[in-house]
Specification:
- The protein is 59% helix and 5% strand.
- The chain is built from 12 helices and 4 strands; from the N terminus they run βααβααβαααβααααα.
Length: 223
Amino acid sequence: MTLTSFGALFEESPNDPLLERVKGVIEQHLPEGWKNWMVNAEGLILPIRESLRNKIRFAIPTVELFNAVLPKETRISEKSYRKLYAALLNWPLGKALIYSPSEVVQSIHSGDDLVKFVGAVEQFKGQLLSRSELNSVLKSPGSILSEVESPAYERHPSPRASQHDNLPERVGSLERKIDSIQESLVNISTARQNIQQSVRDRFELLSPSTSFQKDRNIRKLKL
């Protein structure tokens, strides 16, 4: 395994100049000593399975992230949202900041540094928003990050491993919540399709042409 540090990744210039603005957001929210955390350099270049790509989440406070890159926007389209996330995914530092799904996280982080990373993310995970939540904040006049309900964050030394013995459960919990939301959306879509089909079936039964055809068939039988 070839290791590199967050600090080394931070010093590299991203391909997209806009991502330079994101560095300040990252540095502001991670605890003292984070640049010394080591990551698996090989994991950063491994392709992510297509089935996992839509589950990718980055440990960068969402409102500040988009304010840094698109400061004048009051609504982020799905296209812009996906474009920025694709840029983060192609940026080694951005990829190192993936906190979900756990399969990807554990291919990049390991040991005590994995514990420190997950512990740090928990300090500001309330600021990691979906696109709809992001737009709700941005559309409010004079909206600022403090309007997002989340615990206050203070810079502090990295948490010790003994404080996070249940790391797999915590990482898995984040992933299960995301999966649950996606499953709910699928169920809603299926229910909607079933209702639409039921309405169409009822309409066909009640339509004049259908009733007329039934009357003709009955007359033929009587004859």
